[in-house]
Design a protein that fits this description.
Elements (H helix, E strand, L loop, with lengths): L1 H14 L23 H29 L6 H27 L24 H27 L7 H35 L4 H9 L5
Helix pairs in contact: 2-3, 2-4, 3-6, 4-5, 5-6
Pfam family, one: Ferritin
InterPro entries: Ferritin (IPR001519), Ferritin-like (IPR012347), Ferritin-like_diiron (IPR009040), Ferritin-like_SF (IPR009078), Ferritin_DPS_dom (IPR008331)
Main location: Golgi
């Protein structure tokens, strides 16, 4: 994150005092021996960034759905908007990591591609929570595929990246999956006991209200 901000700030510092024609943003020739990430690993990381961005957009759609006046579930909306911010932060962390490793010299404009969310409506809170759990499970599988790609070749095992993804990302994914599974279970139990009010009460609990 800091590296991304620093890179933008450095570019602005160079370009603002002079005209656009005088601003040279072409890369300079620097030895490439320090750039050691293998192609399969690099490609997997770039695809993972797309996965995180896609999850963020899907959560935005979920938050917007539950914010509609005809549905009006502010607790669910907050839950999913917060999740969207978290997924976007994951994508930024991965971009920051690639910057640190010198892997964003080319094809930067194709790094983030915006695709429409898979779904735009949900029948209920349970439906949304179960969809979120399924999506997080797929994200976790995708992260594990990156790890496999980065440790598949014994000669070029990227120990640092594998350790980073295992410690920084996988633990958070597993905790998040457990949290979503628990929320879905609790909501279903509340609906069994209070079929007409269960989702309403659960939504208030998501806002931190003691009901």
């Amino acid at each position: 994150m800091k590296a991304v901000i620093f890179a933008v700030a450095a570019l602005l510092a160079v370009c603002i005092p002079i005209s656009a024609k005088q601003c040279n943003v072409n890369p300079v020739n620097i030895p490439k021996g320090w750039i050691t990430m293998q192609q399969s690993c690099r490609g997997s990381m770039r695809r993972q960034i797309q996965t995180e961005v896609g999850a963020s957009l899907q959560y935005l759609a979920m938050g917007a759905h539950f914010s509609r006046d005809g549905i009006n579930r502010p607790g669910f909306a907050k839950l999913f908007f917060d999740a969207a911010s978290e997924e976007r932060e994951h994508a930024m962390k991965l971009i920051d990591y690639l910057l640190m490793r010198g892997e964003l010299e080319t094809d930067v404009t194709s790094l983030i591609q915006i695709r429409a969310p898979e779904r735009k409506s949900w029948e209920s809170g349970v439906d949304a929570l179960e969809h979120a759990l399924k999506m997080e499970t797929e994200v976790t599988k995708s992260i594990r595929s990156v790890i496999i790609a980065c440790e598949s070749d014994p000669k070029f095992n990227d120990y640092h990246l594998v350790d980073y993804l295992t410690g920084e990302f996988l633990e958070e994914q597993y905790k998040g999956q457990r949290d979503l599974a628990g929320k879905a279970s609790t909501l279903k139990k509340m609906l069994d006991r209070h079929s007409s009010l269960g989702e309403f009460l659960f939504d208030k609990k998501l806002l931190g209200m003691d009901i």
